[in-house]
């Protein structure tokens, strides 16, 4: 693999992700590419250093006999080694099959078997145990490469073992990796990402190199991210949103500090001081709730006044009007006393956040914007290699998901469904021709399953999932996500709310509260000795939540109002099967788990 750092940039678009990586190494070889954790210490890795590791691993895969487009699994949380493995797979001409580390052993075995993986990178003994438990179901898996652990030297080897195999292979075939990488054509399979789904077996989405190269180069063409930028990457790399941020990195040249631990996001931001970060809306909701609920007394009054002024100033600014002098002065004072402190929580250097994977409530976006923190909401599916729409720093509308990527077409079909067509669209579902035919229209447009509206400037607003709309027994249609989003913006203590009422005469809701925010609330009121389960059963908490439900109902149509509701005694989780790994609600699962409670609302 070339180590010539004096290579000049070319305007020719590479055909593959591997080609993007080779180009980036030539362009930015001595610059920082990644920061990885060694214990509690961040270690910087240059593009050249990463390239040497990738070349050894890719050569190791070639030595094992991996052929073009053969699948290789990665079952791991987000970490530096995940990126190395993925880039090595790309450079060996193979295709990555992603597996969330929280996936149960049965589904893990199904994904690896359905995709016909020959090799699997496994994070640790926990992931290895899943493979061993279903070894008879995985006869095609010849090698397991452990990120953490030594293996047995035969079927199970360490990452270092694979690199050693690669080094020996390179001694006899010094140009093997570069030759393979440069031969990959754009229509070849790069990735199989299995949709987590809410029912049934996951479907493997086939994404070509063309799709990922298009995503990365489109982001680069926005000219909003450059070599001197730094992202904090925590998103699951098994998800398309995480994967596209790596592809964008190859195109733009910025560095990524990688740590997949969700509980370390805020401390890591304060330490590494990123210039941008991608996140799911739940992360912004939690940050908003944490800040809002921690302000009491005079300090709380100052925060309220500051954000009232910030929102008012934004209304002038976003409308293109001059901000009155008294408001300008007040805003400057509040910026120094309040907003700068909020920005410091996130490291103090954020140019913008990127929000995806689920709808972001506009009130939350406006709150961050008032503090000088821009959230650029985007939209896409696994079936579109993550991105199809996004707001841009110089052209955005809060409450929308922005405009379509250049080269992607959009139309609103009968019934309001958003349909897209372009280079980012999948090649189909793996081994599922019938499902592929269902997902695509006769003229080749992808059915997203989302309802949406386009304004005169081409900005798209997602109004809900078609399948999530329900009709009451009175014949009125209800869009649960819209109601749920309003409540999340009103109640800073809420973590989730689900609205139900299909074929019933009124709407009901199940609500969960954020444990940290609730603990702070309880401590301030002398209830700190109670557990989460004890608190949600208390009259004090029910009264507090009831006030927010009443506020919500005052903003709804009569047929949408929540007549009855309950607080669940536990937080929803991926482990409990109630959330997908990308933090989407598994509505049908939660409904089934709580069917008796829901039925009791109508008895």
Automatic annotation (TrEMBL):
InterPro entries linked to this entry: AMP-binding_CS, AMP-dep_synth/lig_dom, ANL_N_sf
Presence of the UniProt keyword Kinase in the record: no
GO molecular function: long-chain fatty acid-CoA ligase activity
Annotated ranges, domain AMP-dependent synthetase/ligase: 23-430
Alphabetically ordered keywords of this record: Fatty acid metabolism, Ligase, Lipid metabolism
GO cellular component, one term: membrane
Superkingdom of the source species: Bacteria
Any Pfam family the entry gives: AMP-binding
PANTHER family reported in the protein's UniProt record: AMP-DEPENDENT SYNTHETASE_LIGASE DOMAIN-CONTAINING PROTEIN, LONG-CHAIN-FATTY-ACID--COA LIGASE
UniProt similarity note: Belongs to the ATP-dependent AMP-binding enzyme family.
Stated name of the protein: Acyl-CoA synthetase
Organism encoding this protein: Mycolicibacterium chubuense (strain NBB4)
The organism's taxonomic lineage, starting at the top: Bacteria, Bacillati, Actinomycetota, Actinomycetes, Mycobacteriales
